[in-house]
Amino acid sequence: MVPPEPEEYCTASDLSPACQYRCMDYNEYRLRYKETDHMAKGKKSKKKAETVFLVCSETGEYNYAIRKKPGGEKLSLSKYCPKLRKHTVHNEKKK
Predict the structure, then answer these.
(1) Co-location of 39 and 4 in the same domain
(2) What is d(CA 28, CA 43) in angstroms, rounded to the nearest whole number?
(3) Does 39 share its domain with 68?
(4) Which of 37, 32, 76 is nearest to 57 (CA)?
(5) Among 2, 44, 68, 74, which residue is least crowded by beta carbons within 10 Å?
(6) CA 76 centroid distance within chain
(7) 67, 48 Cβ separation under 8 angstroms
């Protein structure tokens, strides 16, 4: 909750106690949340890369691990399968 903004930025000690208290709360709020408010407006959330595995379609072995951003369609690549000793289709799978 944001405290109400005072009419002026007051620091004088000759003000009434109620005004001093209100100004102190507002000044403290500005000092405490100034940086976080600014940072929250400018930054966007980034999608972190996740680890996915490429599984051989013929043997079912997990031969490759890659890092990929989430979203998009699943990968299907022709990669080398060491067990069969030839290139086969490898499909993306999450563990």
Answers:
(1) yes
(2) 24
(3) no
(4) 76
(5) 44
(6) 28
(7) no
- 78 and 40 in one domain? no
Q: Which token pair is 56?
A: 């051989």
Q: Are residues 35 and 65 in the same domain?
A: no
Find the domain containing 84 and state its range. 50-93
Q: Are residues 11 and 31 in the same domain?
A: yes
Q: State the pLDDT at residue 41.
A: 58
Please tell me the pTM assigned to this model.
0.52
Give residues with Cβ within 8 angstroms of 53, minimum separation 6: 62, 64, 65, 66, 92, 93, 94, 95
List pLDDT tens digits, range 24-73: 566 677 676 665 545 555 567 778 999 999 999 999 999 999 999 988 89
How far apart are the C-alpha atoms of 29 and 42, rounded to whole Å? 20
Whether 27 and 64 map to the same domain: the answer is no
